[in-house]
Amino acid sequence: MVPTLDRREFLLGSGGIGVAAVTGDVRPEANATRADDPSDDAVAVVSQHGLATDAGLEILEQGGTAADAAVAVACTLSVVEPWFSSALGGGTWALYYEAESEEVTSVDGVGPVGSDATVADYEDRAGDYGMHQSVVPGAWDGWMLWLEEYGELDLEAVLSPAITIAREGYPASPGMVDWLERRVDRIEERTDAAEIYMPDGELVEEGETVSQQDMADTFEALADAYDDERDEGRSEAIQAARDYFYRGSIAEDIVEFSDEQDGYLTLPDFEEFEAEIVDPVSIEYDEGLEVYQNPPNSQGITQLLALNVLKEYDLEGIDPDSADAVHVQAEAIKLAFADRYHHVGDPDRVDVPVADLLDEEYAAEQRDRIEMDEAMEWPIDSGLEETDADHTTTFHVVDADGNGAAVTTSLGAQFQVIGDTGIHLNNRMRMLALEEDDPNRLTPGYKVRHTSNPYLATRDGDPYVLGGNTGVDTQPQGQTQQFVTVAEFGLGAQEAIDSPRFETTAFPSTQYPYDVGNTLEMEREFPDEVVDELEQRGHDVDVGGSYGTANMIVVGEDGTLEVGAESRSEVADGSVVQLDD
């Protein structure tokens, strides 16, 4: 049996940042903090795992930027939460606020479908897990772009927390054990995964130590590639780390594994791939209040479409948990998802009418379609002409200079480990459509409509809310609810995260087999009378469950920082810390 270790043994840093260990049951007041005294030296990190939050804080203490810290968090989550995300095997959309320029940018770290894919071949295996569901992992290149554009520290320093935890191990969380049990049949069939998660022939249990030795080796090899070129300059060193992954031995290992497992990836797919820093999409929600999202091929525009409809409603005096509040948000979200279904895909393959979708007049026309006493059901038409054609984690960082990073990065919980690289590879192709006229149709060399879509709101040009919600189609829905809860209902960051969530399924699911539920899923904390009233309006309500996980940072008008960490998780953690001078 593997020895049990307490998280306290893995707190990182030299003691300058005092972050309390989180063990056992976690309540909201225990895993999130607020800075009541605004200071130029205050920083904030919130993520789905305390060890990843600690890693981000350690990097900020060393003088790193929000970008440096975000990469450290992402890589640490790859170690401690490998079923939800991977800086090496997954895809990432993220937003960055640069304080000096007051500019918000988006990074597209999503790779394309492999060149060898065909609709006919994939359709026969669409319901099966395996290498045929993997696209080119784009996250690593995206993170390297952030380090080059916004970072300060060398790669070895940024990767050090993840390498240490991967080498020394970490205690298996209840969430990890739950996912291992869900996927035990796949893990048993995959030798490389079984060596990690079934070292003695049995699944690791809660609290037992899990190590990721091969992943540590891969991170170290990338850091070595960087160091070999560091004398030539930081940009050249970062490019060397990119090349080692996409034009070196890592790409070769992944393609060899893909060939053995009847996947679709080729070496040219890796050699030709480059992530991009692109312009975000945005709306003005209120005077001086701008909400930014990631552009297509991300589904982020879905949240903006819902908020564009909601912003003209007088929501301030409404109870956040009332039937009116739930109904109007659910109906706006339904209209937004109808537009996502009809129009959003890879803009290199289909014409996504972004300007028309976000037009104020179009939002007003959509608003007129909502009836307060009647619920819409699928099919729901778009208001525009047709376009021609949870397995995620979210985290956020604000550094001492006011730079901010809002990140949602994803993998897919299939525990597919690539040989001795330790890389857990994505299964993103399960979110591609097969119908010929669908804007999200599987097409070799083009990108899936990616569900990751963190958001970032500014107030008078300064960061206001950095947030994200996990859970495929839940993401823009939970994010809409949390933003409205803060901006309209006046609740704090932790209160917004703790508030009960709902999810509409009145549209085709992103995942195969693309079912339409036409239900309104609601957490149990909603009052019975609210559920009854919604059913009277025509909602088919299903009570129970938990809808995604979420984290957020809210920046007060006076500069105070407040984090909201997912209270439905035993290991999510957020901290606001005053750095030592």
UniProtKB/TrEMBL annotation:
The residue ranges crossing the membrane are none
Gene Ontology molecular function: any one: hydrolase activity
**InterPro entries registered for this protein in UniProt:** GGT-like_enzyme (IPR052896), GGT_lsub (IPR043138), GGT_ssub_C (IPR043137), Ntn_hydrolases_N (IPR029055), TAT_signal (IPR006311)
Q: Cite the entry's keywords alphabetically.
A: Hydrolase
Q: Which Pfam families match?
A: G_glu_transpept
PANTHER family reported in the protein's UniProt record: GAMMA-GLUTAMYLTRANSPEPTIDASE (AFU_ORTHOLOGUE AFUA_4G13580) (PTHR43881:SF1)
From the Swiss-Prot or TrEMBL record, give the protein name: Gamma-glutamyltranspeptidase / glutathione hydrolase
What is the native source organism of this protein? Natronobacterium texcoconense
